[in-house]
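Data deposition worksheet. Section B asks for the primary sequence of the deposited chain exactly as it was used as input, without tags or linkers unless they were present during the calculation. Section C holds the resulting structure in C-alpha cell form. Section D is free text for depositor observations; keep each observation to a single sentence. Incomplete worksheets are returned to the depositor.
Section A, Depositor: J.P.
Section B:
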Amino acid sequence: MQIKAQCKQRVGVVLFLFFVATRIALYISGGKLVFLIYFSFLMIGASVYCFGAIGSLLVASLLAFTDTYLIYPFLREIYVGSEISITLVIQVFSYLLIAVVGGLIVEKNWMQKLKLQRTESELKVLQDIDKAIPVTLDRGKLLDKVLELAIQVIKKAEIGSILLVEPSDGTLTIEGVYGYPEHIKGTKISRGEGYTGWIAENKKPLLVEDTQYDISRGRFISKLTNFKEDIGIKSSIATPIMVSDELIGVIILHNTTQTHAFNLNDLSTLTSVANQTAVAIQNTEFYQRSQRAVTEALVVYKVGQAITSRLQMDELLSFVMDSAMQMFSANEGSIMFLDESDFLRIKVSSGLDSKIVKETRLKLGESIAGWVALNKKPVLVNDISDDPRFKKMQPRAGLCSALSVPLIAKEKVIGVLNLGSTCPAKFNQSDLRLLTTLASQVAIAIENAKLFREMEELYLDTIKSFVAAIEAKDPNTRGHSEHVTKYAVAIAGAMNTSEQEIEIIRVAALLHDIGKIGVHEDILNKPGSLTDDEYRVIQAHPFIATQIISHIPRMKEVVNIIYHHHEHYNGNGYCCGLKGGSIPIGARILAVADAFDAMTSARPYRDALSLSEAINELKRNANEQFDPKIVKVFCQLIEKNPEIFQDLLDTQELREGLTESPKVVH
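Section C:
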C-alpha cells in the first residue's frame, strides 16, 4: 500500500511539473484563454488523483494565485471587457470546488480500498488460523502459529506472546511466543501486573504508542521488562481473548524500534485475531478433553485388567509406574509404602538414582510425599521453590513441578504415588484427577494382591502340613523335602539361575513328594522289592501332586517341575518319557537333588550310601538318568561349599565313607 502511494505521488509530481511547464509555455507564447483553463483543470485533476483533497486544494490555490496575479493581467492586454473578471471568479471557484469535491471522493475511495485490503488481510489471517486448527491440535503450537500470522498482517509488530488464564488461580501463563525464546513458556504473571495483567484485570484492549511516556506507566508497566527482549520495546498493542464475556487469555504485540508504530486499525485487526483465536482455543481444548477422556478410560481399563491378571505385587507396581510415567510425560516417579514404623520407603521407581531409592526414608509430614500421607490429600505443585508449603525443602536439582497422591485402602494410607518434572507448571488439575483415580485403582489392586498372597501362603502352609504328615507316615523320609530343597537351591544358584526361577525351584523341591499322600503307607514302608502294580502306584505320585496344587495361579511353573522330576535324561523316565533338553531345567536339577538325598538316606530295604558312593552313582548315571552338566555342577559344589552338606558329614556312617575315599569329591 505504501509503495502504491509513493508511486502515485511521483506520478503527480511529474504531471504537475509538466502542466506548469505547459502553462509557462502558453504564457510566453500568448496562448488562448481556453487552453489555459483546460490545462489548469488537468493539473487539478491530476493532483486530485495523486494527492487527495488537501494536496489538490493547495494546487488549486496555487493556480488561482497564478491566474489572478500573473495570467489575467497579461490577458487584459489581449481581451477587453468585464467578461475577463467574471471568467476569473468562475475559474477560481471551479478550481477550488473541483479540488475539494474531487479530493474527498478520491480519498473516500482510497479509504474504502485500504479498508478492503485490511479486511482481506484479516480474513486471510482468520482463514489461516482456521486451517491451522485441524493440522495443529497441540495448543502451544497453535498459539505460536496464531502469533506468526498476526505479525504477518500487522506489519509493524516484531515480537509477541499469548498468555492464557489458569483456572485454578486466575494467573496468566505464557503459552505462545513469537520472537521470544521458548524457555519463557510457562512463566506466570498475576492479574493487574504488567500490560497483560492490566488487560486481564480490565478486559479492555490497549494501544501504547510510546512506552516511555505512557501516562499509565506507573500502574501496569512493572512487568514489561521481565525478559531481556522487552527492554527495547517502544510501542505495544494488546487485547483480551474472550469467550462469552469470560476472559481466557491475552494477546500482545510489540515494536522494539519505533514509537507510534501501531494505530487503531491495527488494534481492530488484533481484536479480530483474538476472537478467532478464542474459537481455536475452544476447539483444541474440546479435542484435548476428548482425548483426555479416552486416555483416562483406557488407563482405568488397563489398570482394571492388571488387577485381574497381575496378582504379583512387584509386577503390578512396575506396570502402574511405567503407565503413569508414559501417560503424564514425567521425568521421574515412585511408589512409596509405609513400613511398620510409619516411614515412607520407595518400593518401585523410575528415573531415580539407585542411591536415592535405597536411602530415602520419610517421616509423615516430611517432604511432599510425607505431607500427602499425613493429610490424606492429593497435591499439585507447579513450582516447588515457590510453594509456601514446600519451599523450605531442598528439591533435587532440576525438579520443578510434582504430582503426589495417597494410596488409601480401607480408609488407611498405605503409601504414596509420586510424579515429578523438570518443567515448571508441567501438570494441571486434570492430571491430578486422573492420577487420583489411578491411585484408587492401584490401592485396590495392592490390597487384593496382599489378600491373595495371604491366601496363597495359607494354602502353602496347609500343603507343608501335608508334607509333614507324609513324612510322619514314613520315619525314614523325615526331613527329605528340606534336604532336597537345600540341594536344589544350591545347584540353581551355582548355575546363575535368576532369583525368580530359584524361588520356583525352592517351592517345587519342598512340595515334590506331596503326591505320596495318595500312596498307601504299606507301599511306602515296604522293606522288600515292589511289585509292578505297586511301582505303578508310586509312579503316579507326581500326577497326584499336580492335582493338589495346579489350581494355584503362581504354581504353574512349580507344577511343571514336580510333574517331570522323575524323567530320565535318556528318555526312560516317567511321567511323559521326556528326553534331554525337553525336560524342564528345574526338573533336571530336582532329579539330581532328590536322588542324592535318597541315596544318602537309609530306607527299609537298604542302608544309606556314603557321600563318595552317592557321588560315584551320580557320575555313573550321568547322560542316562541325570543331566551331566548338573551332575558336574553338583560335584563342584560339594567340593567348594562342604558346609551345605554338614548334616551328612555329621553322620557317623558318612564320615567313615568319606574317610575311605577322600579323593572322590574331586
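Section D:
Residues 210 and 582 are 87 Å apart (CA to CA).
Residues 215-229, 652-666 have pLDDT under 50 and may be disordered.
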